[in-house]
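ok posting inputs for the iron/sulfur cluster job
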Amino acid sequence: MNHASSNSLVIAEAAKCIGCKACELACFAVHNRDNGVGTAVGTVTMPVLPRLYVIRTDSFTMPVQCRQCENAPCAGACPVQAIRQQDGVIAIDAEACIGCKACALACPFGAISLYKAYSGGAELPQPLLQERRDSKLQRKTRITAYKCDLCRNTEIPGGSAAGGDAGGRGASAAAAQDRNPYPACVAVCPEKALQLVEVGTGSSRSLNREGVIF
Amino acid sequence: MRSSEPIIHIDPELCTGCRRCAAVCPVDAIIGEPGRPQEVDAHRCVICGQCVQICTAYAPDHLEPADGLKAKRLQRGQLPSVREPLFAAYSTGQALGVKRALADSALYKVVQCAPAIRVSLAEEFGLPLGTLTPGKMAAALRRLKFDRIYDTNFGADVTIMEEGTELIGRVMSGERLPMFTSCCPAWVKHAETAAPELLDHLSSCKSPMQMVGALVKTYGAKQDGVDPAKIYSVAVMPCTCKEFECSREEMEVDGLREVDVVITTRELAHLIKDAGIDFMNLPDESFDSPLGLYSGAGSIFGVTGGVMEAAIRTGYELVTHETIPNLQLDFVRGEEGLRTATVQLGELELKVAVVAGLKYVSAILNQVKAGQCPYHFIEVMGCPEGCVSGGGQPKLLLETMRKSAYQARKSSVYRHDSHQQVRKSHENPAIIKLYKDFLGEPLGHVPHHLLHTTYQSREKAVSPISAGREGGRI
Ligand code: SF4
Ligand code: SF4
Ligand code: SF4
Ligand code: SF4
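and the output
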């Protein structure tokens, strides 16, 4: 293991972002192929659940997403160790997640959200709990935490071709075999406001700083 | 009257003001400050729906009360069963009315499908981009309880007969050249708004959709022995502007609307899902005759250059009385916004131009105004790659797929053509029979009554801002 190597992350340049939310939509699309989400909007049968959020203030818009913190506080807060460091990404094991919200509270960036879990495009029921809905007792829907996983294990159709050099420095193949070199948000952003930044793979600290701080 | 209601809208609650729609709008109809909700100038808007295709600002439905979303769907004319996300830029739909009519046994329900539907409908069910499913589409329409499954491609073949004859006449007499095609309602509306003084350069032909509409309530009604007044005529179109076209006052035959209602590719998918039809496992079925039989030339109307290619295949043979040596006319295929070529038709050197995307047309219009336009025949399609890229087509979740989606739909259209036995409009036996039994000669008395139209100047009286208000809000 190379001590210098750190987790990559996607960062946004607020000055370029026009707030179109294409990044949110793309993020949702590539993470829900198992839910029958195809290429066309018409294939979507569930709410759009992205893993990054375009925030809006009076003076700027830009997406916020997980910084893949080296000492991830979310992982420290998780009582069931559902959050792990895997292949250079802080990843949530959705099946292990108990929906306790500790990670969401611990994240200094608000990069984690809790939503209903879906399977095959329909709500995934919780095995034990029931709740009263439409005056009937029904199985409660499973809730799970969602966060940016740098499009690990996803395929971005047309992504690398259209993304061109949009991925900033791009990922070194050795660092992430199963990670897409162009996360979906980076690939689709029409303003190239997003960049995948590799930290610590360069030879000097100044290069690192340049990569992280604009 | 329906045509006075705007079809393209921007939902001020959802619009983030990114103005990507303004960047694709070919006629600068989207007005607003960056970062603020935008409005559509209904006067300028040509209803092409390119803004609807590009907008990615969706309603975060998990954050909004379900009632609010329900109300929005209703306002947009969507079936309550639709689950897909709602976006800021949208077109109002007609699926609710069509569903009601389909349940009405007193009506004789006739449907026609544009060439570009069969290469894109399957995308709404998760099949790969451009999957070609004419058979499943016909089967689905039959399951939806349409009494007759007809085809706009048939109308495209009729268009070639009429427009081709018109062109040859104009070239021979040297009158009103260049002649522009008139199949694309967005282009027609743009010409009426931006260049009313050039309207007599447009072919007087109605679009293939309206031609089929007119024939359904005359020739088709006679063939089927039904009362034309009982016919409910639906068209499935890749185009958001076709609803505007079918509502135009002049689109009437003997006091009846030619096409009663238009739905888009996306709305047809909604109706199929709503009826619980398992699209993926439908068998291949055929279209009904006579208005469902088409040639390869009719099917390529769905792509840019298609009308031109179909016209040349027939025009060549009508002028030279010889068989055209090559049916695949690569010089008009392609994706550039403006393509030009010279075609040798016997003695005649026909100069043609193909315009894909309205933003490329103004240079040509200026040339015509200045009397310096070298072309005889100009095809104009409002959308960037012709109808395969229309505003009513399946909307993509990822912008990175746009190029390959258009490419896949296009090659599917060409593949469909190359597999047809008959590939020239004038050789389509159903067309030959139609002229023999019913229409007589192209441009003759009956065709003139049923298949040709006139245009109206839409030169501006209202101020753009107030029109924008009217267009942008409901
Ligand atoms: S896609 Fe780019 S421009 Fe659009 S909201 Fe995301 S970061 Fe901003
Ligand atoms: S979720 Fe928050 S705390 Fe956890 S790694 Fe990402 S940014 Fe850091
Ligand atoms: S309508 Fe859509 S594309 Fe246009 S500005 Fe609003 S959010 Fe952006
Ligand atoms: S429908 Fe077409 S013309 Fe109208 S606003 Fe949208 S892009 Fe512009």
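notes: Helices of chain A lie at 22-31, 73-77, 102-106, 159-163, 184-188, 205-212. Confidence is low (pLDDT under 50) at residues 159-179, 203-208 of chain A.
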